Amino acid sequence: MASSFRSLVEDENRYLKSFRLFLERSSEHQCMQDFIQGVLPEIFTKIGKGKSSLNVIGVGSGAGEMDLQMFSQMRLKLPGITVNNEVVEPSGDMLFKYKVLVSKTPNLEYIHFTWNKMTASEFESHWKERNLDKKFDFIHMIQMLYYVKDPEATVSFFRSLLSENGRLVIILVSGQSGWGKLWRTYRAELCNTEISQCVTTGDIKTFLDAKGIPYKNYELPSKMDITECFTEGDEKGELLLDFLTEVIDFSKNASPELKAGVKALLRHPDCSSEEDGRVIFNNNLGVLVLDP
Ligand SMILES: C[S@@+](CC[C@H](N)C(=O)[O-])C[C@H]1O[C@@H](n2cnc3c(N)ncnc32)[C@H](O)[C@@H]1O
Q1: Residue range 6-30: average pLDDT?
Q2: I need a labelling partner for 284 at 20 to 30 A (CA). Which of 8, 171, 202, 272 fits?
Q3: How many Cα atoms are found within 13 Å in the side-chain-facing hemisphere of 265?
């Protein structure tokens, strides 16, 4: 059953506001940075072997913060490399922020950016229409597979674009996180499957296992302070609740039973722990690394 609520993604302004707040309240980008600095360099060495130029796609890159961190590690590992970077991002606002970030960051002359203001599936259609056979050395999809209609088909398409030594990196919330528990319990009520999928790395692993596609899996510990969600009427708490449920104005639109059930689950030990009087949600991420 699909949820009857309006999805947060339908209101770009509110979505971006709640996403920004989520980044402030969580160690989301910090744990990704640890992965980018700790694990990716070894992967870059493998994909860059014998190459002077790399083809890269960022799918759902947002404002590009993580992309530029990855490029900086890539450049450290592969000095002298040049990069052709396709950015696939449907939000004009995000693309604008990404371009501003690029303009303010020194020494990026080695990267050629192609801005594709479109969804992953629009990119796929254009690619197929033009019958292109270009291959890519590094493709990343960071926290974006929730927003495609068919995450598995999207993974299959982008994997088909990998070069011989190429790698596809997928980051999503881990099946073991508070998100996984929330979605296993309230998927029918919260998930508007027309717009967004409550998908975790657990779901993608099940798909890859069924297809016999090998992958490497990393778990990234991450936390999110959701204390404000439990103060009725708190503006930031409401935004965080919208982000967690993916529902616009969840507090106003949900039935009292659903609201109580979701809030109880959010502070249940399956989802959160209590630290110094704060409610800390388990925001652990999973990373899957695939080869061609
Ligand atoms: C949660 S943000 C993640 C942004 C960035 N990767 C990061 O981790 O900071 C999700 C991004 O996916 C983009 N997005 C939404 N639907 C998409 C689609 N169908 N195809 C590609 N990107 C999409 C959004 O505009 C947004 O920038």
Answers
A1: 93
A2: 8
A3: 19
Instruction: Confirm or deny that 116 is annotated as ligand binding.
Output: no
Supply the pLDDT for residue 195. Answer: 75
Protein residues whose CB sits closer than 6 Å to any atom of ligand 1: 19, 59-62, 65-66, 88-91, 94, 119-120, 142-144, 147-148
Residue nearest to ligand 1 atom 13, measured at CA: 60
7 CA to centre of ligand 1 in angstroms: 15
Residue 153 has a CB neighbour count (10 Å cut-off) of 14
Contact 156, 74 (CB under 8 A): no
Q: How far apart are CA 102 and CA 292, in angstroms?
A: 30
**DSSP H/E element including 85:** strand 82-88
pLDDT of the residue at 3: 67
Q: Is 246 annotated as a binding residue?
A: no
Backbone angles phi, psi at 270, to 5 degrees: -65, -25
SS (H, E, C) 237-274: HHHHHHHHHCECCHHHHCCHHHHHHHHHHHHCCCCEEE
Edge-to-edge strand list for the sheet holding 111-116: 111-116, 82-88, 53-59, 136-142, 162-173, 285-290, 216-220
Say if residue 122's pLDDT is above 60. yes
One of 3.40.1000.10, 3.40.50.150, 3.40.50.410, 3.40.1190.20 is the CATH number of 8-290, namely 3.40.50.150
Per-residue pLDDT tens digits for 48-86:
999 999 999 999 999 999 999 999 999 999 999 999 999
Residue 155 pLDDT exceeds 70 = yes
Which residue's alpha carbon is at the smallest distance from atom 16 of ligand 1? 147
Atom of ligand 1 nearest to the CA of 65: 9
Tell me the two tokens of residue 1: 């059953």
Mean pLDDT of 103-121: 98
Does residue 211 surpass a pLDDT of 50? yes
